[in-house]
Amino acid sequence: MDRLVVFYYRLHNAIFNKADAFSGLGPLALRLFLFPVFWVAGNNKIDGFDGVVEWFGNEEWGLGLPFPELMASLAAGTEILGALLLLLGLATRWISIPLIITMLVAIFSVHWENGWQAIHDSQSWGANENTAGALDRLDRAKDILREHGNYDWLTEKGNLVVSNNGIEFGVTYLVMLIALFFSGGGKYFSVDYFLNKHFQPK
User: Fold this and answer.
1) What pTM was estimated for this model as a whole?
2) CA 74/CA 174 separation, integer angstroms
3) Angstrom distance (rounded) from CA 83 to CA 67
4) Quick one: pLDDT at residue 1?
């Protein structure tokens, strides 16, 4: 048994110690994934700025946040600047902090009441009390479309689903940002790496 364990760790170290040279690929993958997420979110807020301000400030059907115009500007600016910095791998740890805050606000103020699922799925562990009813309505909608619409054309590019708007995507982005906060931009593939190498005391 001891020999087997020793063999395993020798093999493990022989393979993965060399892989450390490419450890920057992990943070790079996270950054490239998150770039379009925040770039699109920020630009959507700018394009529909008046509506976002109204939604942020309205206490009846919106978020009821104070200073909605300022909050909307900060949210849009953080997402656009954050997207660009993540793409470059510049100030990765610093920009992760306001982006993490942005995601926490979104999770708890927008998505929390809807549970886990982004899309209703009865087979998922995150299904809630609304799932069965939502899927019944989806089945009814499909029946109507099969009878009165061009169902094959409507579903040619993908299946019809019912959005649940839960925290699933928000938590996924949050976890990725936390990982970047601790890892930084990554070895070789970020501006942070080269700036740190240049300014590090000799």
Assistant:
1) 0.89
2) 18
3) 24
4) 75
Task: Tell me the C-alpha distance between 150 and 154, whole Å.
Answer: 6
73 to 37, 47, 54, 133, 200: CA distances (angstroms): 17, 12, 12, 38, 36
How far is the C-alpha of 54 from the C-alpha of 111, rounded, in Å? 18
Listed residue (59, 149, 153, 148) closest to 109, CA to CA: 59
Q: Residues 172-195: pLDDT tens digits?
A: 999 999 999 999 999 999 999 999
- 95 burial level (CB within 10 Å; 0-12, 13-18, 19+): buried
Which run of H or of E encompasses 10?
helix 2-19
Query: 117 — alpha (psi -120 to 50), left (phi > 0) or beta?
Result: beta
pLDDT bucket at 167, cuts 50 / 70 / 90: very high
Q: CA dihedral defined by 130, 132, 137, 143, rounded to 10 degrees?
A: 160
Residue pLDDT, tens place only, 71-80:
999 999 999 9
β-strand partners of 163: 119
Whole-number Å distance between alpha carbons of 116 and 166: 5
Reference 30, options 138, 200, 161, 181; nearest CA is 181
Share of residues in the chain with pLDDT > 90 (%): 76
Are the C-beta atoms of 130 and 108 separated by less than 8 Å? no
Instruction: Quickly count helices (H) and strands (E) in the chain.
Output: 9, 0
For position 200, what pLDDT does the model report?
Answer: 83
